Input
Amino acid sequence: MRSNALGVNHSFRACALTAALVFGTPLTALAEEPAPSASDTALARTLGSEGVQLAEAGNCAAAIEKLERAEKLYHAPTILGRLGECQVSVGKIVAGTENLQRVVRESLPPRAPKAFVDAQARAQKVLDGALPKLAKLKIHVDAPPGVNVTVSQDGEPVSSATLDLDRPADPGVHTVEATAPGFRAARGETTLAEGATGAVSLRLEPDPSVGATGAAGPPASAGQAPPLGPGGAPSPNAPADGSAYPGATAAAPSGAETSGGSNLPAYLLLGTGVVGVAVGSIFGGRVLSKKSSLDGVCKPDKAHCPASAQGDIDSMRTSATISTVGFAVGGVALGAGVIMLIVSKSSSSSGDAKTAPARATLTPFVGPTSFGLSGSF
Output
């Protein structure tokens, strides 16, 4: 019984000593803020004592949460100083050094508890050893002028005022992301050593799936859920039936073409047909002209012609071949062009066509005795 009583008494004294070291004697708030309630003060004392005990035992990961809560309830240099120490211990150098700076720079009253004075001295010592470990990270984002860019580092927002400057950062791996309406998200990653300086440079590329106005796709159609507002609730401006907003303009689907662009192959075929018929007509006229000349020098049966007429005969045959090819190519091209125009007009009037318009590939060729166009439709 005696040993048990001594053990309980020893534990009580240890807790009381820890509380005195954390809050000082008497417990007095130094910040010029409304005094916390008695309940908050008592809870802060408990949380602070537990946090300090965990820190003394080397368990800073568990101590940080208790110390942060105690500091929010009741400010004391002893709590904030231990919090900064633990944050530095687990690698949160930026947050830890900031809290230590607050402790060091705090003006204590003339009769401040000795625990508070000792906390400042201890914080200064830890701060001197932690500041050289701070790393620096410079973030650069290449985006068109006037674009509203949002930047985050490890999921935390980054002010645009800090871009292209050496920002204090914790040693370790860091992920940087930049987003903007109408652009693809850009991400970068870097690893910083203690006291090192690094940089992440990002470039925003336009997102082809988003309209030029920055709208994220066409408005919702019937059967789709209406746009959501803040907190996941339906937007107050969304129609009850889930239809598009009145007056909203739907962005053209990716890959869509205008009616003029869809008729281009047909117009090319028609033009080729006209050229083919014209070539056939020109060389056909030459054939008739040569035939008229040869009728005068050859015998009526056309079986025997003088040797001097052989050149005209060869020229007539070549012109006849070219004329035939011209009429053939022109006729086929004109027919295909007319058919494509009819099909295109029929599809546009129905309004239900969803496939891409037909495309034509044309390749001219020229041979010893012929010329024309080849391709697919």
Remarks:
- The longest strand covers residues 135-142.
- The mean pLDDT is 76.
- Residues 29 and 75 are 6 Å apart (CA to CA).
